[in-house]
Design brief:
Elements lengths: L6 H12 L8 H13 L4 H8 L9 H21 L7 H20 L2 H14 L5 H10 L3 H10 L3 H13 L5 H11 L3 H13 L9 H4 L4 H10 L6 H4 L2 H4 L5 H13 L5 H10 L7 H11 L2 H9 L7 H8 L5 H9 L7 H12 L47 H11 L9 E2 L2 E2 L2 H10 L2 H14 L12 H10 L16
Antiparallel strand pairs: 1-2
Length: 492
C-alpha cells in the first residue's frame, strides 16, 4: 500500500506551479501528472527530479524576481533580528526566518532555468548587493559553482554574501568540499574566504591549519585564528601567541578570544589587560564581556567601577549584564532615573534578576516613531543612504524607576550575593542552556560564548545560524551540571 502524501509534498507541487505560466498548453497536464505521482507515494523532491525542469517560457519571471527581492529584504530583517532585544529564537523562527525560507523555496522550485537565468548571474555579478547575493547563493543547489565564484571574487560585498550563504547551508558535505578547494587554492582573498567559511560553520580541523597562522597573508591569518578554536592540537594553539601581539587589532582580537576559548595559558591575562588598560583599547567592550563571563566577584567589581566613567559607562553596563552579580543589579537600580542610560541599566536587571519585559507596570509606553504625523520629505531632501533598520539599543524599553526599584527591594533577599544569576535563577549548565532557548537574541551570542569558554571549546553553539540547526544543537546538549559556572578567575 502506498504511503499517503504529506500536505507539504502537495504544497511543493502547487508552489512550483505558482511560478509556471498557466497559459502554456502543457501546464495543466504537467500539474495533473505531478500530483498523481506524489499521491502514488513518492515525495516531492523525487518528483522534482523528473518533472520540475521548467522551460524558460513556462516560468512567470516577474514572480521569480519578486521572490529574490523579497528574500533579500527578509534576509536583512532576519540578520537584524539576530541582534534584537525583542526577539527570541522561537520568534525569529516563526517570523522573518520562516518568510525568508519560503521565498528561498520559491526560487529553488523553479529548477535549473531559474538558477541559470537569475541565481547564478546574481552570485557572479560583483555589483550585486550583499543580501541579494546571500539569497541567490542559498537558493543555488550547486555548491561547487558557488565555491568557484568565491575563490575568484574580488568584490567585498559579493564575497561576504557568498560566505554567509555557505555558512547557512545545510549541505553536510560542504565542509569537505571547502577543504578540497582550499587545498588547490593559491592563497590570497580566496584562501581567506574559504577559511572563514569553515570557521563560521564551526568545522573541526586538524594540525594543517597551523601553518596558516604564521603566513604572510593577514586575511588568511585572521580567518585561521578564528578557525583554530575548532582545533584541539595544543601545538597549533601555541601559534596564537604571536598573533595576540599583532599590530592588527582585528587579528589580535581573534587570537585572544580563540586562546580564551581553548584555555591557552596567558589568555586570561590578555583579556584583563585589554579590558582595563587606561589608554585606548581597540576591543575594550568585548574584553569587558570576557571579564564578566570568567572573572570572580572582585574582577566583576572592577567592571562595576567603570560605570562611573561616562566614556565607558554604556560598554560596562553591557558587560555587567553577563556578570550575573547582585551588586550589578543594585547599581543599575540607581541608574534607572537617568533617561540616557536607563534602558541599558534595566536590561541588566532583566538579564540577572529576571524582571519581566511583558509586565506593563515596569515600562513606559514607547514613544511614537520618528517622523510620525509628518509628511514625507521631498525626494531631493531625503537621505536615501541612511540605514532604515534601527539599532539593537533602539529596541530596548524605557523603565519606570519607582515600580522597578520596589520590585527589586522585595526580591533581593532571595538572592545570594556570592552567586551568579541568569533571569533570577542561580547559574548552572541547565539554566544557561535554557537561557539560550529563551533569552533575547542580542544576549544569546555572549551566553553561547560562556558555554564555549567554560567547556574549553567543546560546546560551541552557532547563534548566527538558522534556527533549525540551533534548536537541534540545543536539544542534543549533554547534561552540563558538572561544569562550574560560578567559579571565577582573579585579576592577579
Amino acid at each position: 500500500m502506498s504511503a499517503q502524501p504529506s500536505t507539504s509534498d502537495i504544497s511543493f507541487v502547487n508552489r512550483t506551479h505558482s511560478l509556471c505560466d498557466t497559459r502554456s498548453p502543457c501546464a495543466g497536464d504537467r500539474r495533473r501528472r505531478e500530483l498523481e505521482v506524489v499521491r502514488s507515494g513518492l515525495d516531492a523532491m523525487t518528483v522534482a527530479t523528473d518533472f520540475y525542469q521548467l522551460a524558460e517560457h513556462e516560468i512567470l519571471w516577474d514572480d521569480v524576481t519578486e521572490h529574490l527581492d523579497e528574500a533579500e529584504f527578509l534576509f536583512e530583517l532576519w540578520e537584524a533580528a539576530l541582534d534584537a532585544p525583542n526577539y527570541t529564537l522561537a520568534e525569529v523562527a516563526a517570523g522573518p526566518e520562516r518568510r525568508l525560507l519560503a521565498h528561498i523555496d520559491g526560487l529553488q522550485v523553479g529548477g535549473p532555468a531559474v538558477a541559470e537565468r537569475l541565481l547564478f548571474p546574481t552570485v557572479e555579478n560583483p555589483g550585486s548587493y550583499y543580501g541579494k547575493v546571500v539569497a541567490a547563493a542559498l537558493a543555488c543547489q550547486h555548491p561547487e559553482r558557488v565555491l568557484k565564484v568565491l575563490v575568484g571574487a574580488a568584490d567585498e560585498e559579493q564575497r561576504r554574501g557568498i560566505i554567509k550563504a555557505l555558512e547557512l547551508s545545510d549541505d553536510a558535505s560542504l565542509n569537505a568540499r571547502v577543504v578540497q578547494v582550499l587545498d588547490s587554492s593559491r592563497g590570497g582573498v580566496g584562501c581567506a574566504a574559504l577559511l572563514e567559511v569553515l570557521a563560521r560553520r564551526r568545522a573541526p580541523v586538524g594540525s594543517w591549519v597551523g601553518h596558516l597562522l604564521g603566513g604572510d597573508d593577514p586575511g588568511a591569518a585572521l580567518a585561521a585564528a578564528r578557525l583554530v578554536r575548532y582545533c584541539s592540537d595544543r601545538q597549533v594553539l601555541e601559534g596564537l601567541a604571536p598573533l595576540a601581539q599583532s599590530d592588527d587589532a582585528g587579528l589580535r582580537f581573534a587570537a585572544v578570544e580563540t586562546a580564551l576559548i581553548r584555555q591557552v595559558p596567558g589568555a586570561w591575562e590578555s583579556a584583563v589587560y585589554w579590558a582595563f588598560i587606561p589608554v585606548e583599547s581597540p576591543f575594550r567592550r568585548d574584553a569587558m564581556v570576557w571579564v564578566a563571563l570568567l572573572g570572580d566577584a572582585a574582577a566583576q567589581q572592577h567592571l562595576l567601577g567603570l560605570v562611573d566613567s561616562p566614556e565607558h559607562r554604556a560598554d560596562a553596563l553591557w558587560a555587567l549584564g553577563f556578570s550575573g552579580r547582585v551588586s550589578a543589579v543594585d547599581r543599575c537600580i540607581e541608574l534607572l532615573g537617568d533617561d540616557e542610560i536607563a534602558p541599558l541599566a534595566a536590561e541588566v536587571v532583566c538579564a540577572i534578576a529576571g524582571l519581566s519585559t511583558e509586565d506593563d507596570r515596569f515600562w513606559r509606553a514607547p514613544p511614537p516613531p520618528d517622523g510620525e504625523g509628518q509628511t514625507l520629505p521631498r525626494l531631493q531632501d531625503d537621505d536615501l543612504n541612511r540605514d532604515l533598520i534601527p539599532t539593537a539599543e533602539a529596541g530596548l524599553q524605557i523603565p519606570e524607576p519607582e515600580p522597578t526599584a520596589r520590585w527589586w527591594q522585595e526580591r533581593r533577599p532571595g538572592f545570594e550575593p556570592s552567586l551568579r544569576y541568569i533571569g533570577g535563577r542561580a547559574l548552572t549548565g541547565r539554566v544557561l542552556v535554557d537561557a539560550l532557548w529563551r533569552a533575547p537574541m542580542r544576549r544569546r551570542h555572549n551566553l553561547a560564548l560562556e558555554l564555549g569558554l567554560r567547556t574549553g571549546g567543546t560546546v560551541m553553539v552557532g547563534t548566527r545560524a538558522l534556527s533549525g540547526p540551533q534548536q537541534a544543537q540545543l536539544a542534543e546538549l549533554a547534561e552540563l551540571e558538572a561544569i562550574d559556572f560560578q567559579r571565577g578567575m582573579t585579576l592577579r
